[in-house]
Design brief:
555 residues, alpha+beta, 3 domains, 5-stranded mixed β-sheet, 23 strands, binds adenosine-5'-triphosphate
Amino acid sequence: MSTQASTARMEKIVSLCKRRGFIFQSSEIYGGLNGFWDYGPLGAELKRNVKELWWKSMTRLRDDIVGLEATIIMHPKVWQASGHVDTFSDPMSTCRACKKLVRSDQVWDMLETTPWAQAVRETSPEGKPNPEALLKWAKGKGLRAVPNFVFVKDPEAFLARVAAHTGEWDAQGQSLIQILCTADAAGPLSMPCPHCAGELTEPRPFNLMFKTYVGPAATEEDIAYLRPETAQAIFVQFKNVVDSTRVKVPFGICQIGKAFRNEVTPRNFTFRSREFEQMELEFFIKPDDVVQAQTGAVAALAPDAPHGEPQPNWGWELWHKYWVEERFRWYESVGLKRSSLEEYWQKPDELAHYARATVDILYKFPFGTQELEGIAARSNFDLTQHQTHSGKSMEYFDQEANLRYVPHVIEPSAGVDRLILALLCEAFEEEEVTDEKGQTETRTVLRFHPRVAPVKVGIFPLLKNKPDLVQKAIEVRDMLRPLMNVFYDDGGAIGRRYRRQDEAGTPFCLTIDFDTIGENGPEKEGTVTLRHRDSMTQERVRIADLPALLLGKIS
Ligand code: ATP
Protein backbone atom coordinates (compact mmCIF):
# COMPACT_ATOMS: atom_id res chain seq x y z
CA MET A 1 0.00 0.00 0.00
CA SER A 2 1.36 3.46 -0.85
CA THR A 3 2.08 5.92 1.96
CA GLN A 4 -0.87 8.02 0.82
CA ALA A 5 -3.24 5.06 0.78
CA SER A 6 -2.07 3.93 4.24
CA THR A 7 -2.51 7.41 5.66
CA ALA A 8 -6.00 7.65 4.14
CA ARG A 9 -6.91 4.23 5.55
CA MET A 10 -5.66 5.20 9.00
CA GLU A 11 -7.62 8.46 8.87
CA LYS A 12 -10.79 6.54 8.07
CA ILE A 13 -10.19 4.17 10.98
CA VAL A 14 -9.58 7.04 13.41
CA SER A 15 -12.69 8.81 12.22
CA LEU A 16 -14.82 5.65 12.50
CA CYS A 17 -13.49 5.13 16.03
CA LYS A 18 -14.74 8.53 17.07
CA ARG A 19 -18.00 8.46 15.12
CA ARG A 20 -19.07 5.08 16.44
CA GLY A 21 -17.71 5.41 19.96
CA PHE A 22 -14.70 3.11 19.95
CA ILE A 23 -12.00 5.61 20.90
CA PHE A 24 -12.14 9.29 21.87
CA GLN A 25 -9.40 11.74 22.63
CA SER A 26 -9.06 12.13 26.38
CA SER A 27 -10.40 15.46 27.74
CA GLU A 28 -11.42 16.42 24.24
CA ILE A 29 -13.58 19.39 25.26
CA TYR A 30 -10.45 20.98 26.75
CA GLY A 31 -8.43 20.42 23.62
CA GLY A 32 -7.31 16.88 24.45
CA LEU A 33 -4.17 15.66 26.17
CA ASN A 34 -1.49 14.28 23.91
CA GLY A 35 -0.93 10.55 24.38
CA PHE A 36 -4.12 9.86 26.35
CA TRP A 37 -7.19 8.12 24.93
CA ASP A 38 -10.58 7.06 26.21
CA TYR A 39 -12.56 4.06 25.06
CA GLY A 40 -16.20 4.77 24.25
CA PRO A 41 -19.10 2.32 24.63
CA LEU A 42 -18.06 0.01 21.77
CA GLY A 43 -14.34 0.33 22.53
CA ALA A 44 -14.87 -0.50 26.18
CA GLU A 45 -16.68 -3.72 25.25
CA LEU A 46 -14.03 -4.65 22.70
CA LYS A 47 -11.27 -4.10 25.22
CA ARG A 48 -13.03 -6.10 27.91
CA ASN A 49 -13.50 -9.01 25.51
CA VAL A 50 -9.82 -9.00 24.57
CA LYS A 51 -8.63 -8.89 28.17
CA GLU A 52 -11.13 -11.55 29.18
CA LEU A 53 -9.90 -13.86 26.39
CA TRP A 54 -6.26 -13.37 27.35
CA TRP A 55 -6.98 -13.93 31.04
CA LYS A 56 -9.02 -17.04 30.27
CA SER A 57 -6.35 -18.50 28.00
CA MET A 58 -3.66 -17.87 30.60
CA THR A 59 -5.37 -18.82 33.84
CA ARG A 60 -8.65 -20.73 33.45
CA LEU A 61 -7.62 -22.98 30.60
CA ARG A 62 -4.29 -23.94 32.18
CA ASP A 63 -3.15 -25.48 35.43
CA ASP A 64 0.21 -23.78 35.56
CA ILE A 65 -0.55 -20.04 35.61
CA VAL A 66 -2.15 -17.91 38.32
CA GLY A 67 -3.24 -14.28 38.26
CA LEU A 68 -2.27 -11.18 40.18
CA GLU A 69 -3.69 -7.69 40.51
CA ALA A 70 -1.16 -5.32 42.03
CA THR A 71 -1.10 -1.58 42.71
CA ILE A 72 0.02 0.97 40.16
CA ILE A 73 2.19 2.83 42.67
CA MET A 74 4.75 0.66 44.41
CA HIS A 75 7.70 1.28 46.69
CA PRO A 76 10.18 3.43 44.73
CA LYS A 77 12.93 0.91 45.46
CA VAL A 78 11.17 -1.48 43.10
CA TRP A 79 12.18 0.78 40.22
CA GLN A 80 15.72 1.16 41.47
CA ALA A 81 16.09 -2.61 41.63
CA SER A 82 14.55 -3.09 38.19
CA GLY A 83 16.88 -0.52 36.65
CA HIS A 84 14.08 1.82 35.57
CA VAL A 85 15.25 4.77 37.68
CA ASP A 86 18.71 4.71 36.11
CA THR A 87 18.16 3.40 32.63
CA PHE A 88 14.54 3.63 31.53
CA SER A 89 15.05 6.49 29.17
CA ASP A 90 14.71 7.43 25.54
CA PRO A 91 17.19 9.55 23.61
CA MET A 92 15.63 12.93 23.01
CA SER A 93 16.51 15.94 20.88
CA THR A 94 15.16 19.47 20.71
CA CYS A 95 14.73 21.36 17.47
CA ARG A 96 16.81 24.54 17.49
CA ALA A 97 14.26 26.22 15.20
CA CYS A 98 10.77 25.24 16.40
CA LYS A 99 11.85 24.07 19.91
CA LYS A 100 9.78 20.88 19.67
CA LEU A 101 11.03 17.72 21.39
CA VAL A 102 11.41 14.52 19.41
CA ARG A 103 12.62 11.01 20.15
CA SER A 104 15.92 10.79 18.35
CA ASP A 105 15.51 7.14 17.42
CA GLN A 106 12.18 7.80 15.73
CA VAL A 107 13.11 10.77 13.60
CA TRP A 108 13.66 8.85 10.37
CA ASP A 109 10.38 7.00 10.69
CA MET A 110 8.52 10.23 11.39
CA LEU A 111 10.24 12.00 8.52
CA GLU A 112 9.17 9.47 5.97
CA THR A 113 5.50 10.27 6.61
CA THR A 114 5.71 14.08 6.55
CA PRO A 115 3.98 15.82 3.63
CA TRP A 116 7.22 17.56 2.61
CA ALA A 117 9.13 14.26 2.55
CA GLN A 118 6.36 12.87 0.39
CA ALA A 119 6.74 15.90 -1.90
CA VAL A 120 10.50 15.29 -2.15
CA ARG A 121 9.89 11.66 -3.05
CA GLU A 122 7.50 12.68 -5.78
CA THR A 123 10.28 14.66 -7.48
CA SER A 124 12.35 11.53 -7.91
CA PRO A 125 10.55 8.39 -9.07
CA GLU A 126 11.90 5.09 -7.71
CA GLY A 127 14.17 6.91 -5.26
CA LYS A 128 16.72 7.96 -7.91
CA PRO A 129 17.52 11.62 -7.22
CA ASN A 130 16.27 13.76 -10.11
CA PRO A 131 18.46 16.87 -9.81
CA GLU A 132 16.33 19.14 -11.97
CA ALA A 133 13.06 18.38 -10.22
CA LEU A 134 14.70 18.52 -6.79
CA LEU A 135 16.21 21.91 -7.50
CA LYS A 136 12.89 23.26 -8.66
CA TRP A 137 11.20 21.94 -5.51
CA ALA A 138 13.90 23.35 -3.22
CA LYS A 139 13.64 26.82 -4.71
CA GLY A 140 9.84 26.86 -4.82
CA LYS A 141 7.56 24.74 -2.67
CA GLY A 142 10.40 23.48 -0.48
CA LEU A 143 11.50 26.99 0.39
CA ARG A 144 7.99 27.87 1.48
CA ALA A 145 7.26 24.65 3.36
CA VAL A 146 10.57 23.89 5.09
CA PRO A 147 12.96 26.82 4.82
CA ASN A 148 15.11 25.32 7.61
CA PHE A 149 15.84 22.14 5.70
CA VAL A 150 19.59 22.07 5.09
CA PHE A 151 18.99 20.84 1.54
CA VAL A 152 16.67 23.76 0.83
CA LYS A 153 19.25 26.22 2.17
CA ASP A 154 21.93 25.10 -0.27
CA PRO A 155 20.48 22.74 -2.88
CA GLU A 156 23.23 23.11 -5.48
CA ALA A 157 25.96 22.05 -3.07
CA PHE A 158 23.95 19.04 -1.97
CA LEU A 159 23.17 17.89 -5.47
CA ALA A 160 26.83 18.10 -6.38
CA ARG A 161 27.68 15.78 -3.48
CA VAL A 162 24.82 13.45 -4.27
CA ALA A 163 26.07 13.15 -7.84
CA ALA A 164 29.63 12.47 -6.65
CA HIS A 165 28.57 9.61 -4.44
CA THR A 166 25.69 8.07 -6.33
CA GLY A 167 26.99 4.53 -6.24
CA GLU A 168 27.62 4.68 -2.48
CA TRP A 169 24.15 5.96 -1.66
CA ASP A 170 22.60 3.21 -3.72
CA ALA A 171 24.70 0.56 -2.01
CA GLN A 172 23.60 1.76 1.42
CA GLY A 173 19.95 1.67 0.36
CA GLN A 174 19.30 5.06 1.89
CA SER A 175 16.08 6.89 1.26
CA LEU A 176 16.08 10.09 -0.70
CA ILE A 177 15.37 12.12 2.44
CA GLN A 178 18.35 10.56 4.20
CA ILE A 179 20.55 11.39 1.23
CA LEU A 180 19.43 14.99 1.25
CA CYS A 181 20.01 15.28 4.98
CA THR A 182 23.55 14.07 4.81
CA ALA A 183 26.08 16.79 4.65
CA ASP A 184 28.91 14.51 3.65
CA ALA A 185 28.74 11.03 2.16
CA ALA A 186 31.34 9.77 4.60
CA GLY A 187 30.01 11.68 7.59
CA PRO A 188 27.12 11.01 9.95
CA LEU A 189 23.53 11.71 8.97
CA SER A 190 22.26 15.03 10.23
CA MET A 191 18.68 14.36 11.18
CA PRO A 192 16.31 17.24 10.59
CA CYS A 193 13.36 18.02 12.82
CA PRO A 194 10.35 16.11 11.47
CA HIS A 195 8.13 19.10 12.20
CA CYS A 196 10.02 21.94 10.49
CA ALA A 197 13.20 20.32 9.09
CA GLY A 198 15.29 22.48 11.47
CA GLU A 199 18.49 21.36 13.14
CA LEU A 200 18.20 18.99 16.11
CA THR A 201 20.36 19.02 19.24
CA GLU A 202 22.43 15.98 20.25
CA PRO A 203 20.23 13.26 21.82
CA ARG A 204 19.95 13.33 25.62
CA PRO A 205 18.39 10.62 27.80
CA PHE A 206 14.94 11.37 29.17
CA ASN A 207 13.44 9.17 31.90
CA LEU A 208 10.00 7.92 30.90
CA MET A 209 8.55 7.33 34.35
CA PHE A 210 5.82 9.62 35.64
CA LYS A 211 6.67 10.90 39.11
CA THR A 212 4.28 11.70 41.92
CA TYR A 213 4.42 12.21 45.69
CA VAL A 214 2.97 9.89 48.28
CA GLY A 215 1.58 11.73 51.33
CA PRO A 216 1.19 15.44 52.04
CA ALA A 217 4.81 16.46 52.58
CA ALA A 218 5.86 16.24 48.92
CA THR A 219 9.58 16.12 49.68
CA GLU A 220 12.27 14.28 47.69
CA GLU A 221 11.79 11.25 49.99
CA ASP A 222 8.12 11.03 49.08
CA ILE A 223 8.70 10.59 45.36
CA ALA A 224 7.01 7.56 43.86
CA TYR A 225 6.43 6.47 40.28
CA LEU A 226 3.44 5.34 38.28
CA ARG A 227 4.48 1.88 37.10
CA PRO A 228 5.95 1.87 33.59
CA GLU A 229 5.16 -1.87 33.27
CA THR A 230 3.07 -4.40 35.16
CA ALA A 231 5.78 -7.06 35.25
CA GLN A 232 7.76 -5.87 38.26
CA ALA A 233 4.88 -6.42 40.69
CA ILE A 234 4.93 -10.07 39.67
CA PHE A 235 8.59 -10.41 40.65
CA VAL A 236 8.03 -8.48 43.86
CA GLN A 237 5.14 -10.79 44.86
CA PHE A 238 6.82 -13.96 43.62
CA LYS A 239 7.49 -15.28 47.14
CA ASN A 240 3.98 -14.53 48.40
CA VAL A 241 2.42 -16.35 45.46
CA VAL A 242 4.67 -19.40 45.94
CA ASP A 243 3.93 -19.47 49.68
CA SER A 244 0.18 -19.00 49.37
CA THR A 245 -0.62 -21.37 46.50
CA ARG A 246 0.48 -24.82 45.39
CA VAL A 247 2.32 -23.73 42.25
CA LYS A 248 5.51 -25.56 41.35
CA VAL A 249 8.20 -24.43 38.89
CA PRO A 250 7.60 -24.36 35.95
CA PHE A 251 4.65 -22.04 36.51
CA GLY A 252 3.55 -18.54 35.63
CA ILE A 253 2.02 -15.45 37.21
CA CYS A 254 0.12 -13.09 34.97
CA GLN A 255 -1.34 -9.65 35.30
CA ILE A 256 -3.39 -7.19 33.27
CA GLY A 257 -3.24 -3.53 34.18
CA LYS A 258 -2.41 0.05 33.46
CA ALA A 259 1.13 1.20 32.75
CA PHE A 260 2.37 4.75 32.26
CA ARG A 261 5.25 6.08 30.19
CA ASN A 262 5.92 9.72 29.58
CA GLU A 263 6.63 9.03 25.92
CA VAL A 264 8.46 11.86 24.19
CA THR A 265 6.46 11.64 21.00
CA PRO A 266 3.17 9.81 21.41
CA ARG A 267 1.86 9.07 17.91
CA ASN A 268 0.09 6.81 15.49
CA PHE A 269 -3.23 7.15 17.29
CA THR A 270 -3.19 4.88 20.36
CA PHE A 271 -0.11 2.95 19.26
CA ARG A 272 2.25 4.95 21.43
CA SER A 273 0.29 6.37 24.35
CA ARG A 274 1.36 7.72 27.70
CA GLU A 275 -1.22 5.73 29.62
CA PHE A 276 -1.91 2.24 28.34
CA GLU A 277 -2.65 -1.29 29.44
CA GLN A 278 -0.44 -4.32 29.41
CA MET A 279 -1.08 -8.05 29.63
CA GLU A 280 2.04 -9.66 31.00
CA LEU A 281 3.07 -13.14 31.98
CA GLU A 282 6.18 -14.13 33.89
CA PHE A 283 6.67 -17.83 33.36
CA PHE A 284 9.19 -19.18 35.86
CA ILE A 285 11.34 -22.11 34.79
CA LYS A 286 14.19 -24.15 36.21
CA PRO A 287 17.70 -22.98 35.35
CA ASP A 288 19.21 -25.16 32.62
CA ASP A 289 21.81 -26.67 34.96
CA VAL A 290 19.03 -27.94 37.24
CA VAL A 291 17.19 -29.44 34.23
CA GLN A 292 20.48 -31.02 33.16
CA ALA A 293 21.10 -32.51 36.61
CA GLN A 294 17.56 -33.85 36.89
CA THR A 295 17.00 -35.25 33.42
CA GLY A 296 20.50 -36.00 32.18
CA ALA A 297 20.31 -33.59 29.23
CA VAL A 298 18.55 -30.38 28.28
CA ALA A 299 16.42 -30.98 25.17
CA ALA A 300 18.01 -29.55 22.05
CA LEU A 301 16.16 -26.83 20.20
CA ALA A 302 15.11 -27.88 16.71
CA PRO A 303 14.15 -24.54 15.18
CA ASP A 304 11.79 -25.91 12.51
CA ALA A 305 10.22 -28.76 14.44
CA PRO A 306 7.04 -28.27 16.47
CA HIS A 307 7.83 -28.23 20.17
CA GLY A 308 4.90 -30.41 21.28
CA GLU A 309 3.73 -30.43 24.88
CA PRO A 310 6.04 -29.14 27.65
CA GLN A 311 8.55 -31.72 28.86
CA PRO A 312 10.67 -31.99 32.03
CA ASN A 313 13.87 -31.76 29.97
CA TRP A 314 13.04 -28.38 28.45
CA GLY A 315 15.56 -25.62 29.04
CA TRP A 316 14.97 -21.92 28.46
CA GLU A 317 15.31 -22.14 24.68
CA LEU A 318 12.43 -24.57 24.26
CA TRP A 319 10.25 -22.72 26.76
CA HIS A 320 10.94 -19.52 24.89
CA LYS A 321 10.00 -21.11 21.56
CA TYR A 322 6.91 -22.61 23.17
CA TRP A 323 5.68 -19.21 24.34
CA VAL A 324 6.39 -17.54 21.01
CA GLU A 325 4.24 -20.14 19.28
CA GLU A 326 1.52 -20.05 21.93
CA ARG A 327 1.27 -16.32 21.55
CA PHE A 328 1.03 -16.45 17.74
CA ARG A 329 -1.73 -19.02 18.09
CA TRP A 330 -3.58 -16.79 20.52
CA TYR A 331 -3.42 -13.78 18.20
CA GLU A 332 -4.88 -15.90 15.43
CA SER A 333 -7.66 -17.05 17.78
CA VAL A 334 -8.77 -13.44 18.30
CA GLY A 335 -8.84 -12.71 14.59
CA LEU A 336 -5.41 -11.52 13.43
CA LYS A 337 -4.37 -13.43 10.33
CA ARG A 338 -0.96 -15.08 10.46
CA SER A 339 -0.09 -13.18 7.29
CA SER A 340 -0.69 -9.85 9.09
CA LEU A 341 1.86 -10.77 11.76
CA GLU A 342 5.63 -11.02 11.68
CA GLU A 343 8.16 -12.64 13.98
CA TYR A 344 11.26 -10.55 14.66
CA TRP A 345 14.25 -11.93 16.54
CA GLN A 346 16.16 -9.11 18.19
CA LYS A 347 19.78 -9.03 17.11
CA PRO A 348 22.47 -9.51 19.76
CA ASP A 349 23.24 -5.77 19.87
CA GLU A 350 19.53 -4.94 20.34
CA LEU A 351 19.04 -7.24 23.33
CA ALA A 352 18.82 -5.88 26.85
CA HIS A 353 21.99 -6.91 28.72
CA TYR A 354 20.17 -9.53 30.81
CA ALA A 355 18.08 -10.95 27.94
CA ARG A 356 19.18 -14.14 26.24
CA ALA A 357 16.72 -13.83 23.41
CA THR A 358 13.76 -11.62 22.58
CA VAL A 359 11.21 -12.21 19.87
CA ASP A 360 8.89 -9.39 18.94
CA ILE A 361 5.51 -10.17 17.45
CA LEU A 362 4.87 -7.42 14.93
CA TYR A 363 1.64 -6.39 13.26
CA LYS A 364 1.44 -4.83 9.81
CA PHE A 365 -0.27 -1.56 10.76
CA PRO A 366 -1.12 0.86 7.93
CA PHE A 367 1.65 3.14 9.30
CA GLY A 368 4.25 0.38 9.32
CA THR A 369 5.06 -3.05 10.73
CA GLN A 370 5.39 -2.51 14.47
CA GLU A 371 5.60 -4.32 17.79
CA LEU A 372 2.51 -5.78 19.44
CA GLU A 373 4.26 -7.95 21.98
CA GLY A 374 7.76 -8.85 23.10
CA ILE A 375 8.64 -12.33 24.36
CA ALA A 376 11.88 -12.21 26.28
CA ALA A 377 14.00 -14.87 27.96
CA ARG A 378 15.16 -12.77 30.92
CA SER A 379 17.30 -15.32 32.85
CA ASN A 380 16.94 -14.76 36.61
CA PHE A 381 17.88 -11.10 36.36
CA ASP A 382 14.77 -9.55 37.91
CA LEU A 383 14.36 -11.89 40.88
CA THR A 384 18.08 -11.61 41.63
CA GLN A 385 17.90 -7.81 41.49
CA HIS A 386 15.00 -7.75 43.97
CA GLN A 387 16.80 -10.23 46.19
CA THR A 388 19.85 -7.93 46.28
CA HIS A 389 17.92 -4.68 46.77
CA SER A 390 15.36 -5.96 49.30
CA GLY A 391 17.65 -8.33 51.18
CA LYS A 392 14.87 -10.96 50.97
CA SER A 393 15.62 -14.35 49.48
CA MET A 394 13.92 -15.05 46.15
CA GLU A 395 15.06 -18.65 46.14
CA TYR A 396 12.60 -21.36 45.42
CA PHE A 397 12.90 -24.78 47.04
CA ASP A 398 12.47 -27.42 44.37
CA GLN A 399 11.28 -30.60 46.10
CA GLU A 400 11.88 -32.79 43.07
CA ALA A 401 15.45 -31.64 42.66
CA ASN A 402 15.90 -31.18 46.43
CA LEU A 403 17.70 -27.87 46.00
CA ARG A 404 17.20 -24.13 46.08
CA TYR A 405 17.58 -21.79 43.17
CA VAL A 406 16.36 -18.49 41.79
CA PRO A 407 14.09 -19.44 38.86
CA HIS A 408 14.65 -18.11 35.36
CA VAL A 409 11.82 -16.50 33.47
CA ILE A 410 10.21 -16.21 30.04
CA GLU A 411 8.17 -13.03 29.68
CA PRO A 412 5.46 -12.60 27.03
CA SER A 413 4.52 -8.93 27.36
CA ALA A 414 1.65 -7.54 25.29
CA GLY A 415 -0.04 -4.16 25.00
CA VAL A 416 -3.84 -4.17 25.12
CA ASP A 417 -4.22 -0.87 23.28
CA ARG A 418 -1.90 -1.86 20.45
CA LEU A 419 -3.86 -5.05 20.05
CA ILE A 420 -7.16 -3.15 19.96
CA LEU A 421 -5.70 -0.93 17.25
CA ALA A 422 -4.45 -3.97 15.33
CA LEU A 423 -7.90 -5.59 15.58
CA LEU A 424 -9.54 -2.41 14.27
CA CYS A 425 -7.06 -2.16 11.39
CA GLU A 426 -7.46 -5.85 10.57
CA ALA A 427 -11.27 -5.67 10.69
CA PHE A 428 -11.81 -2.42 8.79
CA GLU A 429 -13.08 -2.80 5.26
CA GLU A 430 -14.96 -0.75 2.73
CA GLU A 431 -16.69 -2.64 -0.03
CA GLU A 432 -18.97 -1.82 -2.90
CA VAL A 433 -22.35 -3.48 -2.55
CA THR A 434 -25.51 -3.37 -4.61
CA ASP A 435 -28.84 -3.02 -2.84
CA GLU A 436 -32.15 -4.57 -3.82
CA LYS A 437 -32.94 -1.57 -6.02
CA GLY A 438 -29.73 -2.14 -7.97
CA GLN A 439 -27.93 0.86 -6.49
CA THR A 440 -24.33 0.53 -5.47
CA GLU A 441 -23.03 1.99 -2.26
CA THR A 442 -19.96 1.67 -0.07
CA ARG A 443 -20.46 -0.58 2.90
CA THR A 444 -18.14 0.06 5.84
CA VAL A 445 -17.73 -3.07 7.88
CA LEU A 446 -15.60 -4.15 10.80
CA ARG A 447 -14.98 -7.85 10.35
CA PHE A 448 -14.18 -8.64 13.98
CA HIS A 449 -13.93 -12.24 15.04
CA PRO A 450 -17.24 -12.93 16.86
CA ARG A 451 -15.17 -13.66 20.00
CA VAL A 452 -13.97 -10.07 20.30
CA ALA A 453 -16.88 -8.22 18.66
CA PRO A 454 -18.27 -5.63 21.10
CA VAL A 455 -21.88 -6.44 20.24
CA LYS A 456 -22.65 -10.03 19.29
CA VAL A 457 -26.21 -9.69 18.03
CA GLY A 458 -28.41 -6.88 16.79
CA ILE A 459 -32.10 -7.52 17.45
CA PHE A 460 -34.65 -5.75 15.29
CA PRO A 461 -38.45 -5.80 15.20
CA LEU A 462 -39.34 -5.29 11.53
CA LEU A 463 -41.70 -2.42 12.45
CA LYS A 464 -41.72 -0.51 15.67
CA ASN A 465 -45.41 0.36 15.53
CA LYS A 466 -46.60 -3.27 15.56
CA PRO A 467 -46.94 -4.27 19.21
CA ASP A 468 -46.85 -8.02 18.43
CA LEU A 469 -43.51 -7.68 16.63
CA VAL A 470 -42.07 -5.45 19.33
CA GLN A 471 -43.18 -7.76 22.09
CA LYS A 472 -41.63 -10.78 20.40
CA ALA A 473 -38.39 -8.87 19.72
CA ILE A 474 -38.18 -7.87 23.37
CA GLU A 475 -38.71 -11.51 24.36
CA VAL A 476 -35.80 -12.55 22.13
CA ARG A 477 -33.65 -9.74 23.52
CA ASP A 478 -34.43 -10.72 27.12
CA MET A 479 -33.65 -14.35 26.39
CA LEU A 480 -30.24 -13.60 24.84
CA ARG A 481 -29.16 -10.66 26.99
CA PRO A 482 -27.88 -12.65 29.99
CA LEU A 483 -25.73 -14.72 27.61
CA MET A 484 -24.10 -12.10 25.40
CA ASN A 485 -23.99 -8.41 24.57
CA VAL A 486 -27.01 -7.63 22.39
CA PHE A 487 -28.19 -4.38 20.82
CA TYR A 488 -31.87 -3.68 20.34
CA ASP A 489 -32.66 -1.33 17.48
CA ASP A 490 -36.09 -0.41 16.14
CA GLY A 491 -35.16 2.78 14.28
CA GLY A 492 -35.27 3.18 10.50
CA ALA A 493 -35.31 0.77 7.58
CA ILE A 494 -33.90 -2.71 8.20
CA GLY A 495 -31.13 -2.11 5.64
CA ARG A 496 -29.99 0.97 7.55
CA ARG A 497 -30.02 -0.96 10.81
CA TYR A 498 -27.85 -3.67 9.24
CA ARG A 499 -25.36 -1.06 8.04
CA ARG A 500 -25.11 0.48 11.49
CA GLN A 501 -24.28 -2.91 12.97
CA ASP A 502 -21.79 -3.64 10.14
CA GLU A 503 -19.87 -0.53 11.16
CA ALA A 504 -19.91 -1.60 14.78
CA GLY A 505 -18.60 -5.03 13.81
CA THR A 506 -21.67 -6.94 15.02
CA PRO A 507 -21.42 -10.42 13.49
CA PHE A 508 -25.12 -11.36 13.64
CA CYS A 509 -28.46 -9.61 13.36
CA LEU A 510 -31.92 -11.02 14.04
CA THR A 511 -35.09 -9.65 12.50
CA ILE A 512 -38.43 -10.41 14.02
CA ASP A 513 -41.04 -10.21 11.25
CA PHE A 514 -44.58 -11.32 10.45
CA ASP A 515 -43.43 -14.91 9.87
CA THR A 516 -42.11 -14.94 13.44
CA ILE A 517 -45.50 -14.17 14.91
CA GLY A 518 -47.25 -16.71 12.71
CA GLU A 519 -49.08 -14.31 10.37
CA ASN A 520 -47.97 -16.24 7.29
CA GLY A 521 -48.80 -19.69 8.51
CA PRO A 522 -47.75 -21.94 11.36
CA GLU A 523 -44.63 -23.49 9.80
CA LYS A 524 -42.53 -20.32 10.16
CA GLU A 525 -43.97 -19.25 13.49
CA GLY A 526 -41.26 -18.94 16.15
CA THR A 527 -38.48 -18.41 13.62
CA VAL A 528 -36.42 -15.26 12.91
CA THR A 529 -34.12 -14.09 10.14
CA LEU A 530 -30.49 -14.48 11.11
CA ARG A 531 -28.28 -12.23 8.99
CA HIS A 532 -24.53 -12.79 8.79
CA ARG A 533 -22.37 -9.67 8.70
CA ASP A 534 -19.57 -10.94 6.47
CA SER A 535 -21.50 -12.74 3.76
CA MET A 536 -24.69 -10.68 4.24
CA THR A 537 -26.58 -13.95 3.76
CA GLN A 538 -29.75 -14.63 5.70
CA GLU A 539 -31.23 -17.81 7.06
CA ARG A 540 -34.34 -18.74 9.01
CA VAL A 541 -33.65 -19.99 12.52
CA ARG A 542 -35.90 -21.16 15.34
CA ILE A 543 -35.87 -18.83 18.33
CA ALA A 544 -35.43 -21.82 20.61
CA ASP A 545 -32.22 -22.77 18.79
CA LEU A 546 -30.66 -19.29 19.04
CA PRO A 547 -28.80 -19.54 22.38
CA ALA A 548 -26.88 -22.70 21.49
CA LEU A 549 -26.25 -21.58 17.93
CA LEU A 550 -24.93 -18.15 18.83
CA LEU A 551 -22.97 -19.26 21.88
CA GLY A 552 -21.24 -21.81 19.67
CA LYS A 553 -20.10 -19.05 17.34
CA ILE A 554 -18.92 -16.51 19.89
CA SER A 555 -17.08 -18.71 22.37
P1 ATP B 1 8.47 0.28 22.04
O1 ATP B 1 9.83 -0.18 21.59
O2 ATP B 1 7.44 0.28 20.96
O3 ATP B 1 8.49 1.52 22.87
P2 ATP B 1 8.87 -1.50 24.17
O4 ATP B 1 9.72 -2.55 23.55
O5 ATP B 1 9.46 -0.48 25.04
O6 ATP B 1 7.95 -0.83 23.05
P3 ATP B 1 7.89 -3.17 26.19
O7 ATP B 1 8.56 -2.45 27.28
O8 ATP B 1 8.43 -4.48 25.74
O9 ATP B 1 7.71 -2.20 24.95
O10 ATP B 1 6.35 -3.30 26.57
C1 ATP B 1 5.58 -4.43 26.23
C2 ATP B 1 4.39 -4.07 25.39
O11 ATP B 1 3.68 -2.97 25.98
C3 ATP B 1 4.73 -3.58 24.00
O12 ATP B 1 4.93 -4.67 23.12
C4 ATP B 1 3.50 -2.79 23.63
O13 ATP B 1 2.47 -3.63 23.15
C5 ATP B 1 3.08 -2.20 24.95
N1 ATP B 1 3.54 -0.81 25.03
C6 ATP B 1 4.75 -0.36 25.40
N2 ATP B 1 4.82 0.98 25.35
C7 ATP B 1 3.59 1.39 24.93
C8 ATP B 1 3.01 2.67 24.68
N3 ATP B 1 3.69 3.79 24.88
N4 ATP B 1 1.74 2.73 24.25
C9 ATP B 1 1.02 1.61 24.06
N5 ATP B 1 1.52 0.38 24.28
C10 ATP B 1 2.78 0.26 24.72
